[in-house]
Amino acid sequence: MKLDFVDLGNLSIAKTNMRGKGKDPDVADILPSIRARGVLVPLLVRPNCEAGRFEIVAGRRRFTAANAIVREGGAARPLPCAILDDADDAAAIEASMLENLARVRPDEVSQWEAFVALVKAGRGIDDIADIFGFETAAVKRILALGALLPRIRTLYRGGEIDAATVRHLTLASKSQQTAWLALRDDADAYCPTGHQLKAWLFGGTAVAVKHALFDVDASGAAIVADLFGEDRFFADGDAFWTAQMAEIEARKAAYIEAGWSDVVVMARGDWFRSWDHAHASKRKGGRIYVEIRDSGEVSFHEGFVTAKEAARGSRGGADGAPSDAAKPVRPEVTSAMNAYIDLHRHAAVRADLARHGGTALRAMAAHVIAGSGHYRVDVEGQRGPKEDIAESVETCAAETVFDTQRRAVLGVLGFDSEVPTVTGTGYNRPTFAGVFARLLELPDPVVLEIVAIVMGETLQAGSEAVEAIGLYLGTDMRAHWRADAAFFDQLRDREVLLAITAEVAGEAVADANAKEKAKAQKAIIADHLDGTNGRAQIAPWVPKWMAFPPEAYTSRGGVGSVRAHRRWGAELEAMIDAEARQGDPDDAGTSDGDIETPPLAA
Question: What is the CATH number of domain 2-106?
Answer without folding.
Answer: 3.90.1530.10
